[in-house]
Amino acid sequence: MIHFRVECPAHVWLKRLRPDQAPGKIMVVSVKVEGLSAFLEAVEKHKGKTIFALFTGSHDAQGKSWCPDCVSADPVVEECVKGAPEDAVFITCSVGDRATWKDQTNDFRTHDKLKLTSVPTLMRWGTPQRLMEEDCAKSNLVSMLFEED
Amino acid sequence: MPPVTANGADLKAAIQKYIADNKVMMFSKSYCPFCKKIKDLFNSLNLTYTALELDQIENGGDLQNALHELSGQKTVPNVYIKQEHIGGCDDTLKLHADAKLLPMVSESTTTYDYDLIVIGGGSGGLAASKEAGKLGKKVLVCDFVKPSPIGTTWGLGGTCVNVGCIPKKLMHQAALLGHSIDDSRKFGWEVSEGVKHNWNTMKDAIQGHIGSLNWGYRVALRDKDVKYENAYAEFVDPHTIKTVNRRGKENTATAERFLVAVGMRPRYPDIPGAKEYGITSDDLFSLPYCPGKTLVVGASYVALECAGFLRGVGLDTTVMVRSILLRGFDQQMAEKVGEYMEKGGMKFIRGCVPTKVERLEEGQPGKLRVTGVQDGKEVVWEGNTILFGIGRDAVTEGIHLEKAGVKFNTKNGKVYGNDEEQTNQPHIYAIGDVLEGKLELTPVAIQAGRLLAQRLYGGAKAKTDYVNVPTTVFTPLEYGACGLSEEDAIAKYGEDNIEVYHSNFMPLEWTVPGYDPNDCYAKVICNRQDNERVVGFHVLGPNAGEITQGYGAAMKCGMTKAQLDTTIGIHPTNAEIFTTLDITKGSGEDPTKTGC
Q1: ipTM above threshold 0.90
Q2: Residue of B212, B219, B225 lying closest to A135 (CB–CB)
Q3: How near does any CA of chain A get to the CA of B210, in Å?
């Protein structure tokens, strides 16, 4: 897997999946960010493309997530994102640790374009299409979000 | 045996699962001689059946109660065949004596792609398909919006969500807020005088909400494994439909049963320029520009609601009315609705119909000239937008009901159904606006869809009750009604047999801004032959919808005038007026308020 750092000041990583993961198909660009400002920068950078975003609980030093629904969503989302349109960008955004997220005044909850109420939240950016909590682990729903507009 | 499940709702679901999972299902008691008789019958016929012995499970009594609620039958044996409730011992024996038992059980030789195909993804179709999906059935919903003449189209959910109840109530709210801004100055808010309304801000916010509802429906269908196709469906034969999607791709699908829930679309008058330059409620809520000076043609509730909020957001609005306002509604109330609108600056051209629409200038909005005829004289209106609200037609024309052998009213396209929403073709049903002679209301369609699916697939018996359905017209001053109009009550019971109690009232909130104390009005119509039972409830005032809903429940319980009188009001509210109605229309006493 080729990892390379983007010229973004925040911890923005850009990952390209190997072509052999879906023969003959250009894969979705996958981006990982942490925090709201990094997320908004990533959105700005990919303006004009179809953007999907997954807001998820962050992992601790041991790589464990505090959010069980996020953990069960991960493999489903990872599988279904393969069906996304070719020009799509998939941004995974970590919303921080449990205490940060539970703070009702946190940016993700209050930002006008997000107004998140739960993690995980998976959305097609700029549309009302979003899935929350255990719905993010249902492959029939997740694939609908990625594949049909 | 262990208990089947814990609480009442779950018990019913458990029973429904038994009924759904077993072709011949019998609820029984091991010692019951009648049950034994039926078991012997089934055995002699070599029928495979499932018997749940209620005396051998821990909560058999609760289960029997739940079964009673579901089937209307208290005793055992309680027999279901292919999810159809047969009844008890005698009923089952009779079925066999009539030689109907075996044919009913025998496997049908045809297999279909779906158990149920629903044509139309509006309130009714979605409710039915979700319920059927929940009961384990294989369901397909076909929904397709043919663009309006000016090209407006929308997503899943039907009229209510996209071009009806939802956007109109929100635009009504926009209008009420404007009114509140004026009031607020009297209450001390120093709001500047130059406050303006922005159409596109309102439209975008409302469309955003609608988009999330469209998505929510798709999620709900997918979650219940109901297949959704954004394609136009038409019958090919009684068990087959052809679908065409927006790319022109054709498909066919078969089903054991069908539900026609295609709804209605606005009607255009047959005059030059109507379709070219006119819009309807199908277009208004997503109009990408402020409609400007508008002529609303028609006096249906759709017309008056649209005119009401357009005026309310500050537009010069005129309503062109052929004859009466709100046909089908109580005419005294309808006239009061109109009077209040007129006070709010609405212009009415009564006794007038349009004869042509011409475009003077292109633009968003452009400029139009509408010519009409009033008492044989020509009337000319010039402005930006003409909106037709002259009625709606069932959109059954293209779905080829005749190929399925379904009878429908050739005048209005509506489908004939019995009290179980079944058409003349026993496997084809119809619900919602498309059903002839029934109410055109979203909650009615939802109830009909849910109950129909529960009857077809959940062993339930309950039918939709189309009587005493409350409703509200969201005109600037809202009009809520439940039961009969005064005209209908007189026709049904005779003038001498009804008593009408009425009163004007003034919302407390209106005192400070100093509005007319007699704009709001309350009326109940009672049947003197039946203990003064309330057969008609009418209210004109702010939040009439909220008032009417509660009294609607009371009317379902058979509320009488005496019971209204013993009810204690909530002070200070508008709804409390109904607990103190003591002036009858017959007395000729003045029901108006003359100040304290």
Answers
A1: no
A2: B219
A3: 9
